[in-house]
Design brief:
Blueprint lengths: L2 H11 L5 H46 L2 E4 L9 H9 L4 E16 L3 E10 L14 E3 L11 E5 H7 L6 E6 L11 E11 L4 H4 L2 E5 H8 L6 E6 L5 H11 L5 E4 H4 L1 H39 L1 H9 L4 H45 L6 H4 L10 H18 L1 H8 L3 H4 L4
Parallel strand pairs: 3-8, 5-7
Antiparallel strand pairs: 1-9, 1-10, 2-3, 2-6, 2-9, 4-7, 5-8, 6-7
């Protein structure tokens, strides 16, 4: 082993022959603990953040579908079965169902108005592409019968309108943009049930009607598009690219990541900011490491001078203190990664135990729609956090090691 490693390791272990060396050891231990704490906190927080993102994404995709195909001309897909059959030839596609969406205003009692998206669906086909049928709390999709003009509302939308199954609501839809055609089309519906998916965008702004009823309101010849469900939603982008090569060029194809671009961009931005903010914890520990190495260099000036007179180069002196700081960073990062991974994998049980012991609830189900803290540990995040921690520790060694290499043997040994 090179002597630089031997000396650096000895300084890291810190001799305890006097109080000064013991104090330096204590500061090194604090720096190591600080790095470990920062890495642990970053891994746990990002894992919980990923968990919430995964839950929200799954609920969103369960309503939207994995891939959407539609005709931008708005004339309707009269032969949607043929398009669905062509799409189903892709091995990833497990289900297809048509849809038709209207933007309008739901009115109840004259003073209750709520903007909403009214989606026309086929009750027999909808379960193939979404889980909304399993989220219906009152009624069922089978209540949407052609010609009955029944409607199923999001739970929050029903609360805002102050309606319950059996009540009547009016749907107002604007037809055209010309001044002569400004009068909205009105149609009365009977509330047949409510659903609750746990995502406010849909619970407060989505309603379901039968496809035939939606087509009759706007005189459409067919559905606006088709939604697809895939075996693996993470492959939606690749599937969308493949479908563009086999389906007619006039059709527009979007995967679920493109349907809510603003939301996913905001989530990514928040996660990046969270990473930067929590990295400051590691940076603070790295500053402690700088102070530790500066104190060590000051304390070991005589040792440095002796090594220089024995022929050690300035680069060798730098390596000694780089090794010392790097070892603190490596051990601190390793401790943080182990603790962070263990906590991230068991955070749900830990939080549940705390709630049970102290009788408190961190997540109220009626507010967050989930009762347990979700965690999604991603090894890519662990790798990025570990690399960042090691980089900060290595950078922290540069100034103290450079200062050690500038020690002049004659001046350092003058009073020894």
């Amino acid at each position: 082993m090179p002597f630089e490693w031997l000396v650096g390791l000895r300084y890291t272990r810190a001799g305890r022959r006097n109080g000064r060396n013991s104090f330096i050891s204590f500061i090194s231990a604090i720096s190591m603990a600080g790095i470990g704490l920062g890495v642990t906190a970053l891994i746990v927080v990002l894992s919980v953040y990923n968990g919430f993102q995964t839950v929200v994404t799954e609920r969103m995709v369960s309503v939207l579908g994995h891939v959407e195909i539609y005709d931008p001309r708005g004339v309707g897909l009269e032969d949607w079965h043929a398009v669905a059959a062509d799409a189903a030839r892709n091995r990833q596609v497990t289900g297809a169902a048509p849809f038709l969406e209207l933007q309008g205003m739901l009115v109840h009692g004259g003073d209750r108005l709520q903007p909403s998206i009214v989606r026309g669906v086929l009750p027999g086909e909808e379960p193939k592409v979404s889980d909304i049928g399993m989220r219906i709390t009152e009624g069922s999709l089978d209540d949407l019968k052609p010609g009955a003009f029944n409607i199923i509302l999001g739970a929050e939308l029903a609360r805002e309108l102050d309606v319950k199954p059996g009540d009547r609501v009016a749907l107002a839809i604007s037809q055209g943009n010309s001044v002569s055609n400004m009068a909205p089309t009105m149609r009365s519906f009977t509330v047949a049930g409510t659903f609750e998916v746990g995502h406010n965008q849909f619970d407060a702004g989505l309603a379901l009607v039968h496809m035939q009823d939606a087509q009759e309101i706007i005189n459409a010849s067919g559905p606006f598009g088709i939604r697809l469900r895939l075996q693996d939603m993470q492959k939606s982008r690749a599937v969308a690219d493949e479908l563009r090569t086999v389906l007619p060029a006039n059709l527009v194809i979007y995967d679920w990541t493109k349907l809510n671009t603003a939301w996913f961009a905001a989530v990514k931005s928040q996660k990046n900011m969270m990473f930067i903010i929590l990295t400051l914890i590691i940076a603070v520990a790295a500053f402690n490491l700088v102070a530790t190495l500066v104190m060590t260099v000051t304390d070991k000036q005589a040792d440095i001078a002796i090594l220089r007179t024995l022929g050690a180069s300035r680069f060798s002196i730098m390596k000694i203190f780089v090794v010392q700081g790097a070892l603190v960073g490596v051990f601190g990062t390793a401790i943080g990664v182990v603790c962070g991974v263990l906590l991230a994998l068991n955070v749900g049980h830990i939080v549940g135990g705390i709630e049970k012991t102290f009788g408190i609830h961190f997540l109220a189900k009626e507010i967050y729609f989930i009762s347990a803290v979700p965690s999604d540990l991603r090894w890519s995040d662990v790798g990025a956090i570990g690399a960042t921690s090691l980089l900060l520790a290595l950078v922290s060694t540069l100034y103290p090691s450079w200062r050690a290499s500038r020690v002049k043997p004659a001046e350092a040994l003058r009073y020894e």
